[in-house]
Design a protein that fits this description.
homodimer; alpha+beta; Glutaredoxin
Chain lengths: 79, 79
């Protein structure tokens, strides 16, 4: 089972992307953890260290980051 | 079966995103057509009409467009 982390910040772009993406993926092949950075600000550093520049973004366990549309920069999330 | 179109232009960002995305999706739920706009320039208009601003992008059959990372703008693809 592959693992991935979907980072978002609750913005409309994020919520839409999350909904579309979770509808597409094969949940038997990949386990996606959803992290709301607005509510879990202590995870912003983890996201940045993984290469997340903006949200929403999906970090894959091979290290690749898929930035999907553009909701907010990490600076905006940090507030 | 849902349908979607993945537009790309053969760039490294595009090819990487295509590879990652096609690995994630549930092919029993969604049928993804891959269109290489560098080779099929006659489809650039279709892509723009669907709301594609840059490639790689995934256009869903509900009209939503997921722009994934950033390989090239449509103007760059048009050349």
């Amino acid at each position: 089972m592959k693992k991935a982390t979907f980072y978002h910040a609750g913005c409309p772009v994020c919520v839409n992307a999350e909904h579309e993406l979770l509808n597409l993926v094969d949940s038997s092949k990949i386990d996606i953890e959803v992290v709301h950075l607005g509510e879990q600000k202590n995870k912003i550093g983890d996201a940045e260290n993984s290469g997340v520049k903006s949200v929403p973004a999906l970090v894959l366990d091979n290290g690749n980051v898929l930035h999907i549309n553009h909701g907010a920069t990490m600076a905006e999330v940090r507030g």
